[in-house]
């Protein structure tokens, strides 16, 4: 919890990672704000800010008086968003760099298949 990014953002990303890896399945209850705050030794308001970010995005929802839960379809939405980020940050620059080297898309695909061990 000290990589220079805001702590609330790290809390949200850790919950997203648990949703993606299946340890927090859809419709399961997430740790309470107080549990998150105690575990990470942070102010509950900071934990709440991270959780509320996920509520605002539709990844989590509140059941009044019960707690926070993972929304239906949350994992699929997170995967789609992560894949789009991956494409924008890695694939697009790779394709652009390959073009400057005179590599066709087919040649680039062949290189990727070889690297993947296919």
From TrEMBL:
Classification via PROSITE patterns: HTH_GNTR
Keywords: DNA-binding, Transcription, Transcription regulation
Domain HTH gntR-type: 5-73
Pfam families hit by this protein: GntR
Entries under SMART domains matching the protein: HTH_GNTR (SM00345)
InterPro entries: Tscrpt_reg_HTH_GntR (IPR000524), WH-like_DNA-bd_sf (IPR036388), WH_DNA-bd_sf (IPR036390)
Protein name (database record): GntR family transcriptional regulator
Species this protein is from: Demequina litoralis
């Amino acid at each position: 919890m000290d990589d220079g990014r805001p702590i609330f953002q790290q809390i949200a990303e850790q919950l997203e990672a648990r949703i993606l890896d299946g340890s927090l399945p859809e419709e399961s209850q997430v740790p309470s704000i107080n549990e998150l705050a105690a575990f990470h030794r942070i102010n509950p308001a900071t934990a709440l800010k991270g959780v509320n970010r996920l509520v605002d995005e539709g990844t989590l929802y509140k059941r009044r008086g019960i707690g926070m839960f993972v929304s239906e379809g949350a994992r699929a939405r997170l995967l789609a968003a992560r894949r789009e980020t991956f494409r924008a940050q890695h694939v697009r620059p790779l394709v652009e760099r390959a073009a400057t080297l005179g590599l066709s898309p087919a040649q680039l695909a062949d290189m990727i298949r070889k690297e993947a061990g296919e």
